[in-house]
Amino acid sequence: MRRQDLRKFDIHLMISILSTFCIGSFVFILFWITNFIIVKPANLRFYLWISYTVFFLIALIVYLATKQPTIVWTKSTGIEYNQKGKYTLENGQSYIIKDKKKSILRSIYKDAINQGKTGMYITRTNPNIIKKKLKPKNTLLLWLTEVDTNNAINPIDIEELAYTIKKFLSKSKNTIISFEGVEYLINVLPFRKILHLFQDLKDEVALNESNLLLRFDPDLLKKKELRLIEKEFMEWKDGI
Amino acid sequence: MVKIIEKKSDIKRIPLHVEGFDEQLDGGIPVGHVCLMAGKAGTMKSSASFNCVYNEVLTGKNALYLSLEQSSTSLLNHMIGMGFDLSELNVVILSDIGKLDKCIEAVNSNKGSLIMSDVAAIRKQLGDIKSMGPQADWLNAIKNIVQKLAKSNACDIFVLDSLSAMYALSKIKNPRAELFYVFEFLRDLDITSFLVTEMFEDKFGEYGVEDYLSDGIIQFAMLRDGRKVRREISVIKMRATETNNDVFILDYKNKKFRALTKLPY
Lengths: 240, 265
What we know:
- The structure holds two protein chains of two kinds.
- By secondary structure, chain A is α/β, with parallel strands linked by helices.
- Chain A is built from eight helices and seven strands.
- A seven-stranded parallel β-sheet of chain A has the order 4-3-2-5-6-1-7, sandwiched between helices.
- The longest helix of chain A has 23 residues.
- Chain A is elongated.
- By secondary structure, chain B is α/β, with parallel strands linked by helices.
- Helix content of chain B is 31%, strand content 28%.
- In chain B, the strands form two sheets. Chain B has an eleven-stranded mixed β-sheet with strand order 2-13-12-11-10-4-9-8-5-7-6, sandwiched between helices.
- At the A-B interface, helix 5 and helix 7 of A face strand 13 of B.
């Protein structure tokens, strides 16, 4: 059984407990009425409780054998709520965020950093603006641009980008990498190359128990491109 | 003289000091190998060779860099321009072969020395003007320099830049046989040799036999990708080494060479 905040019991477990109680009572009383079991009225309560216990244990064993009880509060996305932060990202998981704006990605990223993760933020936005908006701590900010400046990566140098990200991952585990320049890369390079990069990074992130967040506007991708990305990555859906 | 080793880990290696590439070579080139650094013009063969030598000299080894294509001074200036800090090395410029003994003294008295020599130094050894040109014994002159330095323990690594220039200076009548003896000569000296060579289409040397005779081949290439020009590096062959023969992007940034994994497509 996974340790989680108990917000909702598994309905099956509740039904099992109630039905055991009802069935147990019914069977015992039936047997007592029909004299299948001889119990003195004075001892009736005692034997009734024993029968409840026995029936409950049998029901629990059958229930555990047939269904894995998981008391969880999870969406299919794998994003869970945590008392410490707004979001908890599943370690080793990579997500796509289909969003026209960048606010959701930034919100998740900032929350992860506030929970103590080290991060890499890859962006097309002027890094000075990112610094003002995110105030990113423990963050390596990379600007996707053809301008030759500090902490900038030319999108054509996709191998350099891959190398920089992998080097970052090799330095520590449980990090977060946010990518908000997917459309820009697609504009500059063949899609297959970019997909291969993301697939490669997804595997590296999985091994490193980190997280990769890719944000893009789905309207800017071709249908086939979108489907290929969706096949590879888990979609973030309304986790707030 | 090559000895039989007991196990693989007994093989000593010289790394190329290209981040991400030495791992593809089991850690580096086996000591004593004769290795071709092959590629077309502008692919950074000389720079990569110098980079290896520079970093090995920093660890205490002695190296001879013989440049037949440009003067020692010009080459050193080029490397300084690339960011190599020569003040960290003991650089000995051998401008006159007649002063080889003094050069050896200078090397042995300091740990880790880089000896730079060029065609002008050899020309002086060969004597008067009548001795210059294909008739002159350039090959033997080069062999004499290397042999004397190696036997005086003043040379652990030798770089000949380039084999193509040596062919231009010397007339080789029987390439297969003569080059075979040159390669064997270098192996017998127990030094690690890097022979920079120009590629001719698919051939790793002018005579098409250099690849068979060498112990290893590192290939450098240049690729046009749209308006972007990339350099590439790969191991074609390396004896006594488990290699990854993939092609890597060769990148020079912040005074370091790196081999980046090439993404497909």
